[in-house]
Structure formats: C-alpha cells, structure tokens
C-alpha cells in the first residue's frame, strides 16, 4: 500500500520541484517523487512547501530541564567550566522517571520545531550514588521509551566516560553517575541492541572526549564496537574549549583533532562534536577523513565556546550538521540562523553559507544540515529521495511570515526571519504524521510532565 501527498513545491536533493506527488510505503520509506499535471483524486494536498525533516545530531536530553537556569554570574569570569559544575549538581538528582518525562517533553518540542530524528549522547548511566541500577540499561531505556512514545527517530549513543582529564586523571565525585569500564560499556551495548532494533533505533557509541578516555580505553572500546557492529556511528566531543586544546597540547604535544586523526580510525562513521578550535591543518585533515562536524550554535554561543570556521570547512568540502546539545534553544531554523550570523559577525560578510553550487543561503544551510545529520545518525534520513525514510516537514504557506512568497523565499523567511514564530504546519517521521497544525498529539501531557519533573528537581 502506498501513502501519498501532493506538494505544490518540494525541496528535493537537486532543488525545488513543482507539483510533486510524494509516495511512501507502509514501512515509512519513500517510493517515488513524480511530477504530475494535476492532483490525483483523493490525494491530500500539502498546506505549503515540503522540506526534508531535520536530524538533530547532538542532544543531552536531561539538560533541557536546566535550560535558562544558569544565566547568573557565579564566578568572577564565568565559562563552560563553571557552567559544568552547576550542570553536575543538577544531574546528580535525576532518576529514570524524571529523565523519561524530560525527554518526552523535549522530543515533542523537537518534532514541533521540525526535527524529525535525534542523536542522543547519553552519559547519565547510574543512580545518584554512582551505583549501577539493577538493570544497567535503565536510564538508556527511559530515553528509548520517550522516543518511541513521541515517534521521533532515535540514534542512541551511550557514552564511555572514565577520567576527569587528559592522562587518566581520577573522575570527580560529580562524574560518578557517568563512569563505565570499557568491558561494562561493551556489555551495555549488547544489552541495548535488541531494544534498539525493536523500535528501529540505531545504536552507536560516544567516547565522551579525549580528556575522559585514555588512548588504551579508546582503542579497546573501538575494537569491541567493531566486533559488535562495524558500521555503528561514533560521536565524540572535541576541541570545544581553548582550555581543552591547551591541556591536550600539554599532555600529548598535539592539538585534540590532530591527535585523534593520528591515533584513531576516523572516517565517515565519526561525528566530531563542536570541533570549534582547529588549526588550518586540522580543518583540512578532518574534512578529508569524511567525518561530520557536529555544530551546536546556540549551545556554543551560550557557553562562550567560540566560533567554528564554517567557511574554511566548506572550502574543504567537509560534512556538517546541527544539534541542540544543551537545549538552550530547540529549533533547527534558529540554530541555522545562528550559524550563519556567527559567520557574518566574524567575517563581516553576508550570505556566508552560500556556495558556488547553491547561492541561496537558507537552502544551502537546510540541505547541508540534513545530509550531514543523516550521516551522523547512521539512518536513512537524508531527504526526499527514494529509499530514504519519509521524514518531512510541511510549512504553512498562509502563515504571516510566509504568505505570498515563493518557496525559496518561504524557506529563507522560516530560517532567517521567523522572529521566534513557527510556520511549521506538519511534521512526519517514518511516514507517520506526528505534528498537525504545529502541535504534537502529546503536547499538553508531555509539557506537563517536563514541567513537573523540573519542579521536583528544583525542590530537591
């Protein structure tokens, strides 16, 4: 059985197409995109332009409940590191039920904003005392249930976290909930694999960072992962802060990205999250490896990380995508706008993300982020193309931000000129309609659960 939708305009991999009949099967995979002369009988008509759904390549779900609560000065000069201390205190109080409630609310927010899948970089494994739950997968399963309930596509990335700094420093008390031995992590992956398969979620691995795993542990866990699934995605935080770069130089004599490229089999399976501080050689080598740069503009701005040299990465044909990370903002359009604006401020130019093959900034941003996000997710969510999953967004052509515009102008207005309004009418994931008229069916219940979980945590 085919499911169908007529789109007056659809953003296909090759650009905008007019009068397109979109067809997908019962398994939620695209079967055909055909130009037609008229709308076939009984086929619904999209309320506006159809865009590919956006993969969110980096999420720490529990931090959604912390968003906005650290915007006060706690040190003479606040930084990522002072923020991290506050985050650790918050994380210490979370239980499985609270995590599931927060994630459910967050995933509803993501879907309503136009994210159709998420890569969950999950490091909150143990109980508040740092002890394993009776089922070591308890916290991971909370996230899988939230994804299944909301319908968002999931790539689950359990995090290997062992040390407090470069060279194998002992973990701090605030990190006790994160810590796994390498053997324990591999057993956790074995435990999670059938649970992920049961809901078509993708399972991968996230060595937290070079400061959190030793070279020996990194080699051992990558060898074990290869035996379990040689195609599994691998994500790692890297070169987010200048202090991290300095510490890596002191430890190894190399910058973080250079060290990783020299000592790990970095290829297209890898997502280098942030990669904010690279030198010219690292930009060239990292792009050539095929790895995706995982950019999180709103979080990177909120934490004062610095500015990724996006134009340099583009010039090396590097793959990239976006994530909402700490969820200070949960909106792909807003993060794409921030990415473009950071480049404009840094370079004192306009329309920086445009390139020779695509002079339209919004289209270049959207399609680039979809392609890189799909690669990082290791799922077939790379756009409106046969064989890919039917993840897509329908914009509301009658929304005041978009009304009367051409499709390329609508996309540009959605990304650049939305003024925190949303013109998203529908969101589909795997061929299932999850958001209608801008709202998820679970909106009220999910938001109430998130608010209650946050209220309980703030009372603790």
TrEMBL record:
NCBIfam families registered for this protein in UniProt: hutF, PRK09229.1-2, PRK09229.1-5
Domain Amidohydrolase-related: 50-433
GO CC term (a single one): cytosol
Gene Ontology molecular function, alphabetical: deaminase activity; metal ion binding
InterPro entries, sorted: Amidohydro-rel, HutF, Metal-dep_hydrolase_composite, Metal_Hydrolase, Metallo-dep_hydrolases
Keywords assigned: Hydrolase, Metal-binding, Zinc
SUPFAM superfamilies for the chain: Composite domain of metallo-dependent hydrolases, Metallo-dependent hydrolases
UniProt feature coiled coil, ranges: none
Entry-linked PANTHER family: AMIDOHYDROLASE-RELATED DOMAIN-CONTAINING PROTEIN, GUANINE DEAMINASE
Record has Metal-binding as a keyword: yes
Pfam families attached to this UniProt entry: Amidohydro_1
CC cofactor: Zn(2+)
Species lineage: Bacteria, Pseudomonadati, Pseudomonadota, Betaproteobacteria, Burkholderiales
Name this polypeptide is given: Formimidoylglutamate deiminase
């Amino acid at each position: 059985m085919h499911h169908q939708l007529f789109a007056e305009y659809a953003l296909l991999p090759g650009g905008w197409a007019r009068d397109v009949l979109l067809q997908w099967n019962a398994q939620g995979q695209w079967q055909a995109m055909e130009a037609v002369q008229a709308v076939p009988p009984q086929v619904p008509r999209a309320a506006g332009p159809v865009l590919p759904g956006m993969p969110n390549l980096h999420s720490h779900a529990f931090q959604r409940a912390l968003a906005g609560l650290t915007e006060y000065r706690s040190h003479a000069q606040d930084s990522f590191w002072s923020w991290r201390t506050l985050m650790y205190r918050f994380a210490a109080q979370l239980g499985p039920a609270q995590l599931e409630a927060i994630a459910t609310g967050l995933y509803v927010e993501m879907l309503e904003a136009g994210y159709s899948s998420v890569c969950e970089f999950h490091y909150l494994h143990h109980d508040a005392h740092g002890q394993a739950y009776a089922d070591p997968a308890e916290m991971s399963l909370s996230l899988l249930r939230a994804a299944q309930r909301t319908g968002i596509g999931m790539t689950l990335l359990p995090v290997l976290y062992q040390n407090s700094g470069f060279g194998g420093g002992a973990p701090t008390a605030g990190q006790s909930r994160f810590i796994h031995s390498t053997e324990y992590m591999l057993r956790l992956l074995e435990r999670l694999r059938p649970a992920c398969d049961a809901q078509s979620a993708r399972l991968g691995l996230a060595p937290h960072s070079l400061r959190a795993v030793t070279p020996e542990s990194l080699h051992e866990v990558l060898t074990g992962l290869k035996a379990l699934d040689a195609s599994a995605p691998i994500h790692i935080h890297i070169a987010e802060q200048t202090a991290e770069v300095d510490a890596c130089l002191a430890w190894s004599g190399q910058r973080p990205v250079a060290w990783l490229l020299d000592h790990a089999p970095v290829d297209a399976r890898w997502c280098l999250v942030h990669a904010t501080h690279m030198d010219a050689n690292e930009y060239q080598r990292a792009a050539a490896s095929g790895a995706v740069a995982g950019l999180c503009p709103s979080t990177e701005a909120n934490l004062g990380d610095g500015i990724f040299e996006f134009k340099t990465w583009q010039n090396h044909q590097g793959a990239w995508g976006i994530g909402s990370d700490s969820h200070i903002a949960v909106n792909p359009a807003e993060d794409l706008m921030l990415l473009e604006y950071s480049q404009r401020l840094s370079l004192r130019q306009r329309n920086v993300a445009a390139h020779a093959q695509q002079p339209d900034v919004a289209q270049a941003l959207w399609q680039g982020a979809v392609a890189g996000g799909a690669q990082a997710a290791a799922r077939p969510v790379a756009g409106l193309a046969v064989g890919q999953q039917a993840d897509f967004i329908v914009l509301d052509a009658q929304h005041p931000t978009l009304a009367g515009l051409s499709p390329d102008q609508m996309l540009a207005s959605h990304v650049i000129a939305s003024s925190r309004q949303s013109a998203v009418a529908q969101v589909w994931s795997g061929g299932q309609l999850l958001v209608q008229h801008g709202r998820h069916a679970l909106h009220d219940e999910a938001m109430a659960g998130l608010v209650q979980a946050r209220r309980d945590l703030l009372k603790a």
